[in-house]
Amino acid sequence: MIEVSHLVKTYTRGDGTPVPALKDISFTIGRGEFVTIRGASGSGKSSLLNILGCLDTPTSGSYRLDGEDVSHYSDERRSHTRNRKIGFVFQSFNLLPRTTAAENVEIPALYTGGAVDRGRALAILGQVGLGDRAEHYVTELSGGEQQRVAIARALMNDPPLLLADEPTGNLDSAAGESVMQLLTDLHREGRTIVLVTHDEGVAAYAEREIMIRDGLVAADRPQPGHAGSGAARRQA
Amino acid sequence: MAVEVSWVTWRHLAAGGLRQIWRFRLRSTLVILCAALGVAGAVTSVNYASGGRAQVLEKIRRLGTNVIVINAEQSRAVAGRARTGRIVTTLQEGDYQALRREVAAVLRSSAVIAASLRLKAGFSSKVSPVLGVEPDFFRIKSWPLEAGGYFHDEDLKRSARVALLGHGVARDLYGGESPVGQRLFINRVPFEVAGVLAERGQGIDATNEDQQVLVPLTTAMRRLLNVDHYSSILLELGEVGDMARDSAEIAELLRVRHRIPEFRPDDFKVGNQAELIRTQLAAANRLGFLVRWIGLSGLVVAGLGVLAIAWIAVRDRTTEIGTRRALGATAPDVFFQFAFEAMVLATIGAGLGLGLGWIASRITAHQAALPFIFETGNAVLALGMALVLNLVFASWPALRAARLDPIHALKHE
Asked: Is B11 in the same domain as B114?
């Protein structure tokens, strides 16, 4: 599903000095895995997230997503890749204000170049438990509900990869737990989920954890609580 | 890189854009107002100038270019400056007859004697210019009647005490009543009002013709003023020849008749309307030119307003742009969305401005007593320029939106 090898990202500061963010990152994530990428701020996990999300290109190394080498795609092709292959879930939900839940869920479909299927948007909202809130403006929803609308939006184009960036960072613990439960359910249905966080508690929901430190993979290990369980179910 | 454009996507974005316009009503209203005021201002000012020009042309039509006016006046140098105003009595019947005899092209003519006299009708009283004229005067001036009738040659023969009132005099002295057949005292001499002349407004020589009272020439000279000279002579030439040559000929004739030695100034002034008209037309055209530039700068200012609001919108919606980019919008998609929203508003505004401009043109024309002119060509030009300017000005923020780095846009708070 995801194959990164020897990924390097170097930024150039205003005065010309290079700042290495990712030094040499390699890992593989299989279809149906639920993986957290954990690291302190400044560890390089945001840079990694941007590259995994096709928002940025690596300085060197390669990134294969769903069988395609996307490392040097143009801006336009990366836009199309994001649209079809990646579902984004953000820390602060990033729902459009003054817009209803259903309209927010439809946004990825706008950019496919095809018809917008309102029925599908409503069905996904039902799936995340918000079937009765479809016509509500997002400002009328609680934080947990907003994040669930955002997850529904990420699922709209049925992307192979769900990429979540601190999805519980702006939620209280109860709402955060329900969002994590939803992600766990989606994983159980067979979706590939990559979750970026600094929070160990959140990481515990996943079956595998990749630790990033100083632009390098510091550890890549199965989560004790989930060790083998997801994989075992898949293989069974 | 070839930019692929999906029309289906853009149709969706256009529909979404219309919803956005409605949701951000205040901002949308501001853009519409901005664009509307620009077009309305440009249209109104251009129409105002056109109205002014049309009025000059109308004055010219009324008092044709083929009229020569000879005024009796003495220019004297007093303390180095030319002064006029002393009553000159040298323009007399002999001169008038000689002019009619010698100037071949004369078609119509009228001698004029003018004085300011006290009018009295019932309890109303006022001082007004009273002109003694011949019947042809009205035809030379193309001055129709509003009520009653003109006076005729027999009235001049009998020195009849009949008067024609300017529109303003009739209103001031008789209010709403019809003055025709009523009694009017001019310097205590009783007259009968024969008619009221049509409203004229200001003449090309800046006199208010509506405040004049016109009586037969002989009546004015014998019964009112007891004089044997004229204030001026109007000559209408049959065909438009060389006005300057005719004027020079007339001046020479009068100098000889008045025995004015060389190096002494004339005791008359020969004016032809053509010169006055040229000056006024030039002024009207200069105003038109100026007003077009003012209108254009109004459009630019309005366009800058559209730009400013669109710019603020892009800044306010940076997170939205980042989100849309993350969800798959290409840079051209983002450009289209913002340019489309701004253009819809600017177009609505410009159309509204056209309507506003029409109303404002009517109002200004009415208040300035100018003819109402709505120049369709100019209005369409203003509309077109507004749309082009707004497209340019709205494209800039839209381009900025399209070029935002999605990573930075997403981090924007």
From this structure: no
ipTM of this model?
0.91
What average pLDDT does chain B have?
86
| One domain for residues B232 and B314 | no
Does B407 contact chain A (CB < 8 Å)?
yes
Domain for residue B38, yes or no?
A: yes
* A228 has pLDDT over 60: no
Q: Is A56 on the interface with B (CB under 8 A)?
A: yes
Q: Contacts of residue B319 in chain A, CB cutoff 8 Å?
A: 94
Whether B315 and B213 share a structural domain: no
Buried b / exposed e over A56-90, threshold 16 CB at 10 Å, is bbbbebebebbeeebbebebbbbbbbbbbbbbbbb
**Average pLDDT over every residue of B66-81:** 71
Q: How confident is the model at residue A113 (pLDDT cuts 50, 70, 90)?
A: confident
Query: pLDDT value at position B127?
Result: 93
User: Which of A57, A72, A99, A111 is the best substitution to test chain B (most B C-beta atoms within 10 A)?
Assistant: A111
- Is A110's CB within 8 Å of B4's CB? no
Residues of chain B neighbouring A108 (CB-CB closer than 8 A): 327-328
Q: Which residue of A has its CA nearest to B407?
A: A55
Domain extent at residue A131: 2-235
Residue whose structure tokens are 């989606």: A186
CB pairs under 8 A between A and B: 80
Q: Do A99 and B327 touch (CB under 8 A)?
A: no
How many domains in chain A?
Answer: 1
SS3 A34: strand
**Residue A94 and residue B24: Cβ atoms within 8 Å?**
no
Can you say whether the dihedral through the CA atoms of A201, A207, A213, A218 is positive or negative?
positive
Q: Among A55, A76, A110, select the one facing B9 at the smallest CB separation.
A: A110
Q: Is residue B49 domain-shared with residue B126, that is, in the same domain?
A: no
For the domain that residue A32 is a member of, what is the CATH number? 3.40.50.300
Look up the domain containing B384 and give its range.
7-59+279-411
B106: β partners: B237
Q: How many CB atoms lie within 10 A of CB B341?
A: 25
Smallest CA-to-CA distance from B33 within B308, B288, B243 is with B308
Contact B8 A114 (CB under 8 A): yes
Structure-token pair, residue A204: 């515990």
Which residues in chain B have Cβ-Cβ distances shorter than 8 Å to A153?
A: 327
Domain end: B239, B256, B288, which one?
A: B239
Indicate the number of domains in chain B.
2
Residues B110 and B235 in one domain: yes
Residue B124 lies in a domain: yes
A17 in contact with chain B, both atoms CB, cutoff 8 A: no
pLDDT band at B288 (very low <50, low <70, confident <90, very high): confident
CA distance A164 to A171: 14
Interface contact flag, B327 A114, Cβ < 8 Å: no
Residue B115 belongs to some domain of the structure: yes
